[in-house]
Design a protein that fits this description.
heterodimer; A: 99 residues; mainly alpha; 3 helices; 78% helix; 0% strand; elongated; B: 644 residues; 72% helix; globular
């Protein structure tokens, strides 16, 4: 099977994730879209590693997973805190940090 | 002029030994007094005045011992240097801190410590009721110490330290009652005028170093022979500028009258006996330089002649007893400058007049203080009159001072001033006529204004205000007056006709030489005495025979001008202060508008721009995410473009 197909899939997933981040207001959904983007890159890494025939990309995919796990912990904690104080998880609502 | 230069060739100073190894103590004692009194705090309030008087007195005793030791030496062996330490050592610039006791500095040491001590004693009585006596005596001691350092230094740089110290001490003392704004302003004025002069002295020192590579007296004077006349003239003129500042000579004379703001003993100490004389000291000490620069000498003489007439004219119109005396000081210092500018014929007489003047002027200033003490600190002579009967000692001592300054035959001023007038008539061409006449006329005017002052104060009807009850001052004030009066009477006859002062100073300043006067000496003498008599008679008819109005009459144009110090302040103001003010105003404007404008404008542009850009920070996370995505896309696109 042509490994390029994985790259195309990865690009598709990344685009879906990116449009989700840009278009959705619910912080949980935005967060899940970020995860989608991360996993799209993981897929790309693994596909490229396969194409190059070495393990570098696979190793980096593991790193990304670790980072993503840490990010989930922190990100969810933040979202929960925001929800507790604002009674909403709309990312547009939390816009006080500006000029 | 090789002969004259040879005459003033500096003799090698002998190394200090015996009593002369204590020379540093002369300065250290009053300096110690100043330090202790100024840092000692309130605990010393009670003993302060006594301590402050004893230390200069100790200096005086040491000075007398040294003087006697000098008398016991040969005339050529009376120059004793004391090396203290290596002060400045920078490459080619080597300055040792050293002291020089010779005939000239010994004259000053005795005058400063002697008259200074008397003034200290007098101050104990005069300042008895001032709460800040300790500070006052501390300043007086500081002044004496600075003055001694000035005259004992063996190089120009150390002299400059003393010079500045004198300036500082005079500033502190003139502004002693600085809670009166006018007095504080007077102190500031004196300081600023002095600074102008100090500037000249510092430049002179710089030229010396540039030309001779040294600033020590011995080094400079021994290399004067090889220097160009232009350089010597430049040094001489700059030294003269310094001398004009300290000695209140034209055109830097304006501070002296206002400096009467200080307590009266200060006026006696600073503005009669010591500080104003340092200009004369500087010129006489630098005799070797001036001998090689005839043009600078001529300027010195001109300055002296202008000042002596200027001071005399101003003195005629002042109703404030201290300001009249101040104008008289200015005029008498003018005589000394004139003599000092005449060269070897005048140096010794300049110092002679300086010594006698130190006595009779201190005497009269302290006498004026005594009168003020009895008259509730009033200074307007139109409110005095008839004091002679109630203040007998003050009257008699002041009278001796008065007769001495106008040159009454036999008293000090007669011997010293007539010698200067004679010396002014010596020489050839137009100079003796001009300068001699100036000195002669000055003597007549001096007689007029001093007689006026004396009669208005001590004689005539009593024009006192209701509330004064004059009384003689306490003994602690009258005894210094008596001592000074004796000095005023006898110092001249001791030093003058015996030729003692000329012989004494000859190794330092050179012999007077034999030059003939354009008029016979006897004629000069008779003319002088006639003018003096005329001055006295005029003053008698105007201020004793006729009533003195309590309110000053409007007077002639000249009187009004003289009351305003011949408009010296107005001239200074319009010539220097206003242009300076306009210049600073322009600079301030330039700074505000152009320099600050550029800086502020740039900041405003940046601030405005960033204010606009700030709006980009909306706080919407999704818009940041979009811009990051766009940025990443641009980066990737750019990389793809570069790759291909």
């Amino acid at each position: 099977m042509n490994p390029m197909n994985y790259v195309y899939l990865s690009a598709l997933l990344f685009s879906i994730g990116a449009s989700g981040v840009l278009l959705r207001r619910n912080a949980i959904v935005v967060f899940m879209c970020v995860e989608l983007m991360l996993n799209a890159t993981n897929l790309a890494f693994v596909a490229f590693a396969r194409m190059q025939g070495n393990l570098d990309g696979q190793v980096i995919a593991f790193f990304v997973m670790v980072v993503a796990a840490a990010e989930v912990v922190i990100g969810l904690a933040i979202i929960v805190t925001i929800f507790r104080t604002r009674r909403s998880t709309s990312v547009d609502g939390a816009n006080l940090l500006k000029y | 002029m090789p002969t004259i230069l040879a005459a003033t060739e500096p003799t090698q100073a002998a190394t200090a030994s015996g009593v002369f190894s204590l020379t540093w103590l002369l300065i250290a004692l009053p300096l110690l007094g100043a330090v202790v009194l100024l840092l000692g705090g309130r605990r010393l309030d009670r003993v302060g005045p006594l301590l402050g008087t004893l230390l200069p007195a100790a200096s005086f005793v040491l000075g007398v011992v040294q003087f006697l030791a000098l008398l016991g030496r040969d005339a050529d062996d009376r120059s004793i240097g004391q090396y203290l330490y290596n002060w400045v050592s920078v490459g080619r610039f080597q300055v040792d801190a050293g002291l020089l006791v010779d005939q000239l500095s010994m004259c000053f040491v005795l005058l400063i410590t002697g008259v200074g001590t008397l003034i200290h004693i007098y101050s104990i009585g005069y300042m008895a009721h001032d709460t800040d006596r300790r500070r006052f005596f501390g300043y007086l001691n500081l002044f004496i110490a600075a003055m001694l350092l000035l005259v004992l230094a063996d190089n120009y740089l150390l002299l400059y330290v003393g010079w500045e110290g004198v300036g500082l001490a005079s500033y502190l003392l003139i502004g002693f009652w600085s809670f009166v704004p006018a007095y504080a302003a007077a102190a500031k004025k004196a300081f600023v005028a002095n600074r102008v002069g100090d500037f000249g002295l510092s430049i002179a020192i710089m030229i010396m170093f540039w030309q001779f590579g040294t600033v020590s007296f011995q080094g400079v004077f021994s290399s004067v022979g090889g220097a160009s006349e232009g350089a010597l003239t430049a040094i001489g003129l700059m030294l003269l500028l310094g001398a004009c500042g300290k000695s209140a000579q034209f055109p830097l004379q304006s501070w002296l009258g206002d400096a009467m703001a200080g307590p009266t003993p200060v006026s006696a100490l600073i503005h009669a006996a010591t500080m104003v004389t340092v200009g004369v000291y500087l010129v006489v000490r630098s005799a070797a330089i001036f001998n090689g620069a005839p043009n600078a000498q001529l300027v010195v003489v001109i300055v002296g002649a202008i000042t002596l007439i200027f001071g005399a004219v101003v003195g005629c119109a002042k109703d404030d007893i201290k300001k009249a005396l101040a104008a008289s000081t200015m005029s008498q210092i003018g005589y000394m400058m004139l003599a000092a500018g005449l060269g070897p014929v005048g140096y010794a007489f300049a110092i002679f007049h300086l010594l006698t003047h130190g006595f009779f002027k201190a005497n009269m200033f302290l006498g004026a203080g005594s009168v003020m003490h009895g008259m509730n600190d009033q200074i307007n002579m139109r409110r005095f009159g008839g004091i002679s009967t109630v203040m007998k000692i003050t009257w008699i001592t002041f009278g001796i001072g008065w007769l001495a300054i106008i040159g009454f035959p036999g008293l000090s001023g007669f011997w010293s001033k007539d010698k200067i007038i004679e010396a002014a008539f010596e020489g050839e061409g137009w100079r003796p006529w001009v300068f001699g006449s100036a000195a002669l006329v000055g003597a007549g005017i001096t007689a007029f204004y001093m007689t006026r002052l004396f009669f208005m104060t001590f004689h005539g009807e009593r024009r006192w205000t209701e509330d004064v009850h004059p009384h003689e001052s306490p003994k602690v004030m009258t005894i210094p007056l008596i001592v000074l009066a004796i000095g005023s009477a006898l110092l001249g006859v001791v030093l003058g006709p015996t030729g003692a002062i000329v012989d004494w100073l000859e190794p330092v300043v050179g012999a007077p030489g034999e030059e003939s006067t354009v008029l016979p000496v006897a004629v000069v003498l008779v003319l002088t005495e006639l003018l003096v008599l005329g001055g006295i008679l005029l003053a008698w008819s105007m201020y004793l025979r006729t009533r003195v109005p309590v309110v000053a009459p409007v007077g002639s144009v000249l009187t009004r001008a003289a009351r305003q110090d011949l408009y010296q302040d107005a001239i200074n103001e319009s010539l220097f202060m206003r242009p300076g003010q306009y210049l600073t105003r322009f600079l301030v404007f330039f700074d505000n508008r152009v320099v600050d404008g550029a800086v502020n404008g740039l900041a405003a542009v940046l601030g405005g721009t960033s204010g606009r850009f700030r709006r980009l920070q909306t706080g919407f996370v999704r818009s940041y995410a979009l811009s990051m995505l766009a940025g990443a896309a641009v980066l990737v696109g750019a990389m793809l473009l570069v790759r291909n």
